[in-house]
Amino acid sequence: MSRYPWLWPVILIISATIIGVLTLGDISTPLRAPAAFWFLLVGPGMAFVPFLRLKEWLAEALLAIALSIALDALVAGTMLYAGVWSPRLGLVVLVEITFAGVVLQLLRRSPSRFTARITPAATASAVPRPRISVGGVLLPEGLLLAPGPQGAGAKAVVILVGLLNDQATTGFRIVGWFYAAPGSFAETVWHDVAERGCAFEFGTDLLLLLDPTTQKFVLHTWKDGGFVPAGVISLPQMSRAAGAAE
Amino acid sequence: MATTLNRGATLQGERAESWFDVARRALSVERDLTAPWALELTLLGLLLWFFSLKQINIREMNDLGLVSVLPPMFYLALLATTAGFCVSLLQAKLSYRLLLFQLAVLILMLYGVTILVEDVPRFVVTWLHAGFAEYIGRTGHLAPQIDARFSWPILFILSAFVTQIAGLPNAISFAAWAPVAFNLLYLGPLILILQSATRDRRLVAVGVWFFYLTNWIGQDYFSPQGLNFFFYLLIIAILLKWFKSTSSLPDSLPAALVRLGSPGRAAGRLHARFRIPARAADWLYEWVRPADTLVTESTPATRVALVTIILLIFSVVASSHQLTPFFLLVAVGLLVVFNRISLRGLPVIMAVIIGLWISYMTVTFLSGHLDSVTGNVGKLGDTVGANVGGRFKGSPDHVLVLYTRLALTAGVWGLAGLGWLLRVLKGRRDLTFVLLAVAPFPLIFLQDYGGEMLLRVYLFALPAMLFFAASIFYPTASARSSWVRAAAVGVVSLLLLAGFMFSRYGNERMDSFSSDEVTAVEYMYGVAQPNSLLIAPVPSVPWKSHGIENYTYLSAGDNVPPSDANVFVSAMADKKYPAAYLLLSRSQEAYAELYYGVPAASWNHFAQAVRQSPKLHLIYSNQDAEVFVLADRGKQATP
Predict the structure, then answer these.
(1) A67, B174: Cβ pair inside 8 Å?
(2) Searching chain A, which residue's CA lies closest to the CA of residue B142?
(3) What is the dihedral of CA B104, B106, B107, B110, to 10 degrees?
(4) Interface mutation target, options A22, A27, A63, A228, chain B, most CBs of B under 10 Å
């Protein structure tokens, strides 16, 4: 869903408009019932659930449906107990709630660009892993590099990180980087998943995993509640920039 | 160059494989051939199911229910779908998309079959609930004096609202689809709940699959509890996914007791003194001490939002059903007491919400009763209608169905117990799921709910029970996928399916209605003036779906069949009512035979007595129903 941030706002605006026009205009068409069920089951909830940034479509869909039903029921119930039973009024309120959520979503999202492509790789082993030397200490701000003969390889990592983080040109952002347990290259434990998973916000977010003993690194994306090897990242500028640095 | 050579060598190696290796790999985990096979078998099942529907003649059904009219093709369809599911268990990494599709097909096949072979929505209470929604939509008011369920009205109000927004004439237009829609809704939270216990996708898949083979109790019709079970599952799923307690208790029981202050220290001294009870206590403590794993991390803002959603959902639950809030309260309370979840205040807030609603509604309910002149309106008959389990009596075939239900329930609980034992022997405690499995049981003692309570307990315990049952087949996350395990799942699935078809649809002869019966009821509403008396000797009639407050409804209670027609004639002669109508119908006869064990001959004898009674006059009949009025008032009552 995060790949097309405008998709749900557009769907919600169209859905709310359709059912609003059909109901307020009292137009009877076979489409009215499906349109009503669709909007009342999904609309009000989906206008707000993206703010939770759950990154899991199943959880997001479920919460959207449950929240929609709850909001529908509370609006209808409130009207009845307040003695102003009017389904049209209730629908207007729900459409307004939905529009409010959509507007908030649109205001909050900053547009992200997609200039670089991730080629999906079927297996992690298909990813060519550059052998590089890394030595240093991990800090929240970045990697503090150790001096020495391994510096050259580390520099390549820094250049890579710098390139990827240059969102203006690549659209990628590295949201975390950490060492894997020595020797367990590209294996993540659930603790890492739990710790790092919440950093991912957009489909273009990447995580850099370094293995200090085998001296390999790999980039991960986030999908369906887990890390997925990012596959081959085609960055035409990378080789040039890296070459220039050498 | 080297690459080319290597590639050639691999190709030759593959050719050298024996047919057995090829076959094994086709069925086993290394190739993705399994997913297409699974998909094709599922699609085949769907196709067979669809064509088998045309061969079902619902009118030929006997007291065994739907199974008595299902053609062989229907069973082939179930077999193909089950085979498809078992094959999908052989995937290297089980695809959730495929699983969702397979489960959706299964739900349509098992829960949608009656919708497509019957003329009108099944189950008498479906019509009554549509009537509640109709009353609310028409008047904009509640009527707790007509029925106590108006005191938990939020979902009836919602039904009225949705009906009018959708531009539909009444809730009956969509009520038939409720079982399919509700069971589809249950799918998501069930997956999340099982995922909170294991990372083994096969275990999740088998657990959810079993749920749909064992959810026989039929509380998923058009009703508040149908939707509320979704809310129950979702709240539990949110709590287990995001709010598991991450801090373990102190390492040893004495260390934990010290924290409790002076009573704890006293207990600590006892612990030091009596060695054997202390060991037992230590063993029990070790169950509670460790926190669960597999927590989904979230930001504080997300957690606040999730709690808000939980409270919104719960307020709908508390205002729409009498029982579900208590099931939630007990389950969440146990999870908090045993340090499973971190939202310690949630049970308290839930209790407050329940208390507020009940105390507020009790006032309305009481004042409604004080105002009402006819306090017994609409009360006769509804209580027995919903009782699916019932007593162990009725026609011989019906008793067989009841025993099947007992066997299926015992089988599920037995499998769960076995699975739990196996996991304990492997050193797993699964305290969270043990708690969820036992939480519903105390409610049997708290509230008497017309004998239905055990059924509801079974339903609410089912997800946790099935986690243990499924773990028999996939005991550890590292258990390799094998066709033996998949086949075992298949065999158990077929057994459960057999039990399911008898248990769920065993009452179908009395639970289903024909369009002729509905036509007769509509005819009656068409001619009956307001305040008329409407009589059905057995209250298994598709009525009350509109104008519930306009009529007085009467039935014979447990006196079935009445000895003769005169029982009703005197009631019909009461001058209090402008007119009175007596309805005989097919489903009433079915109900009398199935539920009360009345022989067909004695029902016919009663019906014949009504037809031949000089005091009664037939004003309407079709193949499934007859409407009578008093002979001397016949002219008034007929338009």
Answers:
(1) no
(2) A80
(3) 160
(4) A63
> CB pairs under 8 A, 24+ apart, for B217-220?
B217/B388, B217/B389, B217/B455, B217/B456, B217/B458, B217/B459, B217/B504, B218/B123, B218/B179, B218/B388, B218/B504, B219/B455, B219/B456, B219/B459, B220/B111, B220/B178, B220/B179, B220/B182, B220/B183
CA distances (Å), origin B632, targets A77, A78, B90, B629, B636: 47, 49, 74, 9, 9
CA distance A147 to chain B (A): 36
* Span B408-431, pLDDT tens digits: 999 999 999 999 999 888 888 889
**What string of DSSP letters covers B234-287?**
HHHHHHHHH-B--PPPPSSHHHHHHTT-HHHHHHHHHHHH-HHHHHHHHHHHHH
Of B29, B40, B173, B63, nearest to B115 (Cα)? B173
Nearest Cα of chain A lies from the Cα of B8 at a distance, in angstroms, of 19
DSSP H helices, B550-629, are: 566-572, 586-596, 600-612
A 200-219 residues inside an 8 A Cβ radius of B: none
- Going B269 to B275 to B281 to B286, the CA torsion angle's sign is positive
Q: Which of A36, A52, A91 sits opposite B302 (nearest CB)?
A: A52
Task: For residue A179, report the phi and psi dihedrals to the nearest 5 degrees.
Answer: -85, 140
Query: Which of B96, B107, B301, B130 lies closest to B201 in space, CA to CA?
Result: B96
Question: Which tokens belong to B29?
Answer: 């985990």
The answer to whether the CB atoms of A59 and B305 lie below 8 A apart is no
pLDDT along chain B (639 residues), means of 10: 35 46 50 77 93 88 87 94 91 85 95 91 91 92 83 92 92 92 96 90 93 92 94 96 83 79 80 81 81 79 92 94 91 92 92 89 52 33 37 76 90 94 87 93 68 84 95 75 86 94 89 91 90 88 88 78 77 85 90 84 87 88 90 56
- Cβ of A124 under 8 Å from any chain B Cβ? no
DSSP element (H, E) containing B104: helix B96-111
State the nearest Cα–Cα gap between B375 and chain A, in angstroms: 23
Chain A segment 159-188 residues within 8 A of B by beta carbon are none
B617/B629 Cα distance (integer angstroms): 5
Residue B376, number of CB atoms within 10 A of its CB: 10
Pairwise CA distance, residues A212 & A181, whole Å: 8
Helix, strand or coil for residue B397? helix
| Cβ contacts of A219 within 8 Å, gap of 6 or more | A164, A206, A207, A208, A209, A229, A230, A233
Q: ipTM of the predicted structure?
A: 0.86
Q: How many CB atoms lie within 10 A of CB B442?
A: 12
CA A90 – CA A98 distance, rounded (Å): 12
Buried b (16+ CB within 10 A) or exposed e, B605-624: ebbebbeebebbbebbebeb
- CA of B29, closest CA in chain A: separation in Å? 15
Q: Do B294 and A52 touch (CB under 8 A)?
A: no
- How far is B292 from B619, CA to CA, in rounded Å? 68
Contact B163, A90 (CB under 8 A): no
Q: What is the pTM of this model?
A: 0.79
Sign of the four-CA dihedral B565, B567, B573, B577: negative
Q: Do residues B237 and B189 make contact, with C-beta atoms less than 8 angstroms apart?
A: yes
Do residue B165 and residue A40 have CB atoms under 8 angstroms apart? yes
**Nearest-angstrom CA–CA distance, A123 and B251:** 42
Which residues are CB-neighbours of B558 under 8 A, at least 6 positions away?
B384, B596
Residues of A in contact with B154 (CB under 8 A): 73-74, 76-77
Nearest by CB to residue B297, choosing from A37, A74, A197, is: A197
Residues facing residue A211 across a β-bridge: A216
